[in-house]
Amino acid sequence: MASTPRFPRRGLPRVPGGQPWPPAGADVPARPDGAPDAQEPEGVEPEAPSRPSAAPDVAPPAPASTDAETRDMRRGLPREPGGEPWPPASAASPDGMAPAAGSSAGSAPGATSGPPPGADAAAGEPVDAVPPAAGRTDAATDGVRRGLPREPGGEPWPPVSAGPVGAAEAAPREASASHEALAPREASAPRADLAPSGAPAPRAAPAPRPPLTVRRTVWPGAAARKTAAGAPPAPTAGRAARAPVAAPPPGGGARLALGDYSPVQLLGSAAVLGVFALALAGIAVLLARFVLAIGPGREFLAAFPGEYPLPASAPVGLPVWLNVTHFLNSLFLLLIIRTGWQVRREKRPTAFWSPRANKKRRISLTLWFHQALDILWIANGVVFVVLLFVTGQWMRIVPTSWEVFPNALSAALQYASLDWPTENGWVAYNSLQQLSYFAITFVAAPLAIVSGVRLSGVWPKDADKLNRLYPAEWARRVHFPTMLFFVAFIAVHVFLVLATGALRNLNHMYAARGAVDPEAYTTDPTGLLLFAASLLVMAAAWVAARPAVLVPIARLFGDVKQR
């Protein structure tokens, strides 16, 4: 069976022009005392095999051996400028580098071949009388590599009280080495108590870490939440045991995202929610029809048919400028909602924009495009509102009578019963439409603008009093729900346009064609063709809203840097 070579493998020198490392007098791996030597170094006499077995050679721990081990340990750069190399000279050598005391003394250059002083006196003492070397354990503890402190001004981490990971296996190994040095030397008898050096010893559990002294800012992600919810994963070979999953942030449980669910779970949830929504819609339809079928319901419908007459000075018909601003409003809102969602979900922007006047201010290209669309949308809205009041069209969407509220309830009941109210948008909107258009124009749009300005770079960041009166967190809590209101309004608006006479309504909104007779223009496809063309323009704008197209445009107004 092959044995461990007596001399260690030597590599490149530590300094230019020096001898290979480790030096020729470096420590030799420990071997049984009775094993034959292939080569004996000069000046060392071979041991006499005829020594009586009844008198074992007792080798007390020699300080010179410890010093030799410390000097032969590899040391690195100092921990501070001008300091000594790390680890310090007082630290013990790593586990597995220190050979037995007898082998170290026999292989070191210049060492004497005779036994150390006091060996004869110690030969008669029993093995148990030799005290354990406590200094080696302390040195191993002191030699733990320590890093930066956990807090400013604190001591290096880990603390001095924390022992090394291998301390549990170093203690039995030291005891085994001491026992081998004190045991009688038998050249022919095999040592059955020596375990193979390749067998790994069980590692001691790491000491618990002290709590952090600073506020926590990082929390477990989706993988950690899955691990905490289910069974812990099997530990992989060669990887240390992971720390327990930390608790979720205070103030609520772990938040689950859509990515935490499988496609089958999402599909099943959507199917269940769809069935539930259909059931609620069916109940609402039956309830509305029941209310309108009873006597009080019929009387209420006769008194409030769903709309009230406008003032005599109210204009009739929709002008072309209203059709154009309506289309631009639809286009800008589509892109604003898309870019706003991208800003909310974007983690690593592909490009950044900086104004030429302030190079230090930098925002993502998506946020720049979102704010540019906001400016265009606000400009279009200002033109729309100004023309609305100049031409008198404001009377179509601004309530002029308190009868708007009972008529709006009547129109809602008619919509819920699937018996659409008879209306002609070319002349006047019903009360429910009037309230919804008023809310989207004079309530939701200003809220979106005010909250968006607070979150943009236009807001003065140094105005402390203004920032306390209007915190950014309030703006975030208003801005996102306002966007959801716009999305819900657009969905319901488009559905009702297509469900209550698509050709007639599209002629009103896109072709500025209509009549007092509600049956007119119900077969004219002009509005439908213009609507299809507007959809193509929106699709082209959606596709073109990418960095390859936006970067040249953004460079006209500032500097753009791409990843």
From TrEMBL:
Q: Keyword Zinc: yes or no?
A: no
Skewed-composition ranges (Basic and acidic residues)? 68-82, 143-153
Occurrences of domain Cytochrome b561 bacterial/Ni-hydrogenase (ranges): 320-504
Q: Name one GO molecular function term.
A: electron transfer activity
Asked whether the UniProt record includes Cytoplasm among its keywords, one would answer no
Q: Where, per UniProt, does this protein localize?
A: Cell membrane
The superkingdom listed in its UniProt entry is Bacteria
Query: What SUPFAM superfamilies does the database record attribute to this sequence?
Result: Transmembrane di-heme cytochromes (SSF81342)
How would you describe this protein's topology in the membrane?
A: Multi-pass membrane protein
Keywords of the record, alphabetical order, are: Cell membrane, Membrane, Transmembrane, Transmembrane helix
Transmembrane ranges? Answer: 266-292, 312-337, 365-390, 435-457, 478-499, 527-545
Write the protein's name: Cytochrome b561 bacterial/Ni-hydrogenase domain-containing protein
Q: Which organism is it from?
A: Microbacterium testaceum (Aureobacterium testaceum)
